[in-house]
Structure formats: C-alpha cells, structure tokens
Design goal:
This protein has about 300 residues and is of the alpha/beta class. The protein has one domain: Alkaline Phosphatase, subunit A. Helices cover about 35% and strands about 10% of the residues. It has a 7-stranded mixed beta sheet. α10 packs across α12. The protein starts with a strand and ends with a helix.
C-alpha cells in the first residue's frame, strides 16, 4: 500500500540569507536532507528525481497585498485560487466566499472518494477538551475541511494513546498552559506517533502552526529553538519512512518566520519538499494551487494500480 504524509508548516517562506533569517543559519541535518542539501532560503535550487522534488511555490496567487492563512490554506487544500475568489488575501479564518470550495472540493473529500467504504484520510492533530466544550468557536480552514469530509477530530484521549500529535510536537502547551495531564514527549516521539497514524491511512495531514506564532511573536519561544525541534521531528520521520511506499510532503501557506525584522507575513515563495514514491507528480507544481491536484492525481494513480 502506498501512502502520503502531508506535513503542513504554517508561515515558513523562502527569504534571502542573512542574520534576520533564522532558516539561513544553524545546523539542521534533517532540513538539509529533505531539501537535497540546500538551505531553506531564496533562491532554492530546484531538484527532481524519482524520489525527490525540491522547489519553491508562489504564495501570492496573483493578488496584491500580504498572503494570509485563510485564503492561502484554502487554496492549498482545494487547488482553487481562493485569494482570487475573495478578491484579496484574507485570514486567518476561512472567508465565506471560500466555503463552497472547502465544502465540496477539499483534499480529504478527494481522497475519501477513492475508497468510500473505508476511512483513507486522517487529520493527525489533537484538540483539547476546551476546543470541543466551547459554546461558540471559529472553525479553521482545516477543521472545516474535516467536517465536510467526515474526518474526525482527535481528542485528548487520542493524544494520550499516541494516536494523535500535539501541534507543538512536545505537548508542552497542553501541560503548562491548559493544565492537562499529558505525558511529555520529544519531537522524535511525536514523529513516531504520527507515522503510526500515517500507516493506517492513505493520506494523513499534520498541521504545525507554531512557526507562524513564533513569527508573529505570539509565544515566547526563540526561532532557533523551535526550528531545532522541527528538525528533530523531521529527522525521525525520514528514518521511519520507506520512499518506495511512503511519501513525505512538506509545504507552507505564506512566509513569516524567515524575516524576524517584523511580525508580518511576507510575499516570499514557500518551499515544497516531496520525498518518496509520489515525487514525480509534483515536478510541475508552481504555486499553492498545484498541491492538492498533484496529491489527488498521485493517489488516484496508485489506487488504479492496486489490485482489488
């Protein structure tokens, strides 16, 4: 069985190398392994092989202004240019003009259609009890996609049972901020738990949004510390995955963290790293609009090739 693991990393663009860019310095072996040895800076050398694609993607979508999560993520998870549909970049929550695309054309739905009698798609993030208990809460792009595709949101119990992953990788925020009884874990532990979920599904999505929060300085965490954790997480993923059967895809929705001179988003391109059997399907990707169609085409092709 061939599977695809989508690691979405919020707010990571490709900026010029320099002291203001935390992605340009520091020893991060997994970052280099995933990018084929290149630094995560602009310009990012394009690399293409049977098991690897490395390239940059346009996140501006032909629209003026700074890209935002609402329209960027909606575009990423549907293949529809949602910034163009809205007429501007919008976020962080989904704009009403994008609801139709999110409700009827999202990535989870396209994967579910390949095998309607099973549950081939999973969202690996855990959500705390406070999320489910809130009398009114604003849905994110991802949770709206899950709702429309009948993909369940994972709970505290799933996190404790290692069937879900905390967005911060270590579950530190669950213990210290939310005061929940969750065992500490390392980024490598989080990778192992994510791969266990990945092996049970055709497509698994994990969303890491601390990168954007650090870029906005909304949490007290140094960029180098965060990127070190992410590197250890990715390093363990790469040791666990078999490129003949697994594909790891990593990309973002807009830039932010790569320029610490300010706390705004940027118009920089974002990286696309694909490692595994599905890499050839991404050789022509140029913007956020191309990610979901390439995933769907790859999984449709492998579904047709699988007997029964």
């Amino acid at each position: 069985m061939r599977r695809l693991l989508f690691v979405f990393v919020d707010g990571v663009g490709l900026g010029p190398a320099g002291p203001e860019n935390p992605l340009a310095h520091g020893s991060r072996p997994a970052f280099r392994q995933l990018s084929g040895g290149a630094a995560w800076t602009r310009p990012l050398p394009t690399r293409q092989s049977a098991h690897r694609v490395v390239r940059s993607l346009d996140a501006t979508l032909g629209v003026d202004g700074l890209p935002q999560s609402g329209t960027g993520q909606a575009t990423l998870f549907t293949g529809v240019n949602c910034a163009e549909r809205v007429g501007r970049h919008f976020g962080p929550f989904p704009h009403s003009a994008t609801h139709a695309a999110l409700d009827h054309r999202n990535l989870f739905q396209r994967v579910q259609a390949l095998s309607p009698t099973s549950a081939p798609a999973a969202f690996a993030n855990a959500f705390p009890p406070q999320f489910f208990e809130a009398s009114s809460r604003r849905e994110t792009v991802t949770t709206r996609c899950c709702t429309s595709a009948d993909v369940s949101l994972r709970t505290l119990d799933a996190l404790r049972a290692r069937r879900a992953v905390a967005a911060d990788l270590t579950a530190r925020g669950w213990r210290e901020t939310l005061q929940l009884d969750v065992a500490p874990r390392t980024p490598a532990d989080a990778a192992e738990h994510l791969v266990a979920t990945h092996r049970a599904h055709t497509l698994t999505l994990f969303e890491h949004f601390q990168t954007d929060k650090v870029g906005h300085r909304r949490i007290d965490l140094a960029p180098d510390v965060l990127l070190g954790r992410l590197d250890r997480f990715l390093g363990r993923l790469l040791t666990l995955l078999d490129p003949a059967h697994d594909t790891l895809l990593l990309t973002s929705d807009h830039g932010n963290l790569e320029d610490t001179r300010h706390t705004q988003h940027t118009r920089n391109p974002v990286p696309l790293f694909v490692y595994g059997w599905a890499a050839p399907y991404f050789t022509h990707a140029r913007s956020l609009t191309d990610v979901t169609p390439a995933i769907a085409t790859a999984l449709e092709a492998t579904a047709r090739a699988t007997p029964g």
